[in-house]
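Example record

The entry below shows one chain as it appears in the dataset: sequence first, then structure tokens.
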Amino acid sequence: MRLHLLVAVPVMLACLLLQGLVVAVCLRRYARFCHHWQGREPFWVDVAILSVIMLVTLCGNFAQMAIWAGLFMLLGEFTDLLKALYHSAVNFSTLGYGDIVMSERWRLLGPIEAAHGILMFGVSTAVMTAAVLDIVKNSAARLKQEEPT
């Protein structure tokens, strides 16, 4: 177990840094964009903002799957990148098909990646939830301003 953690921790740290970068970029761009529009954004802007945030966070998660796949290839578990990516995606998303299994020596990396992946999807969900709640709050404020007094 110690060997697995020694191998997995640097990969998890790299993925955490990547996820932190993605979250920071999303939130900063979102705040800057909202400041520019200052409550007068049309409906299509809300749709575009949410779509971009979903796409960027999903790409961040895909990049993390690729990092894990690279580790699996580096360890000699896979020679084909597509198989390594597939296996990583199944682990990361906690889908757990089990149709491709790593050797007994490195098999414990699968659950470690799954635990990491579910946390990263949680962070992505939190970013989306924050953006949705902010859009709802801003929409409610706009409607309140439009009401006749």
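Notes for this example: The two ends are 67 Å apart (CA to CA). The CA atoms of residues 19 and 60 lie 6 Å apart.
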